[in-house]
Amino acid sequence: MTTIRIACIGAVALLAAAPAARAQAPAPAANPDHWTWHGAIAPGKTLEIRGVNGSIRAEASTGSEVEVTADKHGRDDDPASVHIEVVPHEGGVTICAVYPGHSNTCEPGGGHMRVRDNDVQVQFVARIPAGVAFDGNNVNGAVEASGLSARTDLSTVNGSVTLETSSGDASGTTVNGGVRATVRGAGQGRLTFETVNGSVDLSLSSGLSADLSAETVNGSIESDFPITLTGRINPRHLEGRIGQGGRSLRLRTVNGGIRVHSLP
Question: Kind of pairing, strands 237-242 and 152-155?
Answer without folding.
Answer: unpaired
